[in-house]
Amino acid sequence: MFREEKESVSRILSCLLSSPDEGMAEEIYRGTLYSFFRPQVQSWGGEIGILKGFRDGEAPEVLSKNLKKEYDRLFSDFGSEKISLVESFYKPWTQDPDCSLSFAAEKGLIMGDSALHLSALYQKCGLEIGEGFQGMPDHLILELEFLGYLYRWASDREIKMFIKDHLDWIPLLKVELERASAHPFYRTVLEVLDLFLRTERRRLEKESDGEEKIC
Q: Nearest to residue 143, comparing CAs of 68, 89, 203, 65?
């Protein structure tokens, strides 16, 4: 894959984790997503079967309503599942051994170490956090957007560091979706993302270590 393709993959996956609309449902109905990702999955050595969530015969207006209802159930603060798409939630709040706060090592919180690190990276790169993501700089949608940015502007060493530091929690999110019996569409999005990241990790492992400075 060329870097432009990897940038597109990152940005498309980011969009697919946004609140769904009829335009997204139309792309699923027309098979656009399936057609785009099929050769990618094959090139990564994956099984085409993981794309079944990108093949849905429901009319776009019906599928759009069903996906919106499922998105709210899974990811809304008021949904029954309340599955987080924020990295900090899956990790200890801080790794600082000198932090004396009682909740320092707890999980399930936001604005932890990963959020602070990403805020600093965005600022260093001249990027602003969009409306709706204030207090969640390590939201998966933003992380994938930033990954796409890195494929355009950064070195492989920098991309390797970002994936290692900030996208290592995706298997935990997959488990949460499986537990919640999520709609096949969202399980497919995570399967594709996980396969893409695993493929990139293997490729990037061949890169030599050295000084790594994003932006």
A: 89
